[in-house]
Write a structure and sequence with these properties.
It contains six helices and 14 strands. Helix content is 20%, strand content 26%.
Length: 257
Amino acid sequence: MGACEPLRIVSWNVNGLRSILGKGFRDFAHAEGADAFCLQEVRALPTQVGEVLPGYDHLWHPAAKPGYSGTLVLTRVPPLRVVRDMPFGKDEAEGRVLTCEYPSFYLVTVYTPNARHGLTRLRYRQAWDEGFLAYLQDLRATKGVVFCGDLNVAHEERDLARPEDNRGNPGFTDEERAGFSSILGAGFLDTFRLFSAEGGHYTWWSYRGGARRRNIGWRIDYCCVSGDLKPRVAEASILSEVGGSDHCPVRLVLAPS
């Protein structure tokens, strides 16, 4: 491990931190030994949970609404600075963006809003995507950027098991896919695709119909980097065997700077 910044990063939408703690999260975390765990949809307050992992700094950004949304970074390496929210004005109450500054990069944890059933929040989502990209670009002007989390979009047809059945549904609308394309077009990289081009790799499965057992899923959880960090990307993987949530963790390993 580098002395000044995390090199092994795990991101996971835990679908409720209090729930996942009762399903072996600590055992997983100790075995994984990551320098930083970036958690989304924690749906809890620090006072409801207490210490999650001994030996890690706990950087919380809970939502104002009880039991909703929220992010948490557990890091062995204290950051130089922590920023909650982004200069967009619509995230303050939902705890969706948490940024840690390290010597050579920013680590951003993100839980992107869902467009919701009936696409009732699609316009909000489009504006949010634009604001998030602008925020990433502002950060990149200073140093490299790593961002990871639940982006609530399957970017391409190979990123979900049944694209034809889901076209136009939340998470696979043209608008949401275009929002992620804009991020990649601005010079950010989907690190998993540096190592694997084929489909069949997913990070979220419905609880219905044995979807996970049958691997009928979506890849909506990502670890991305700005282009300048590409030479440092040593591994990007999906830990599909890890249970406890309807999402599975994703891992990014960086070489030392």
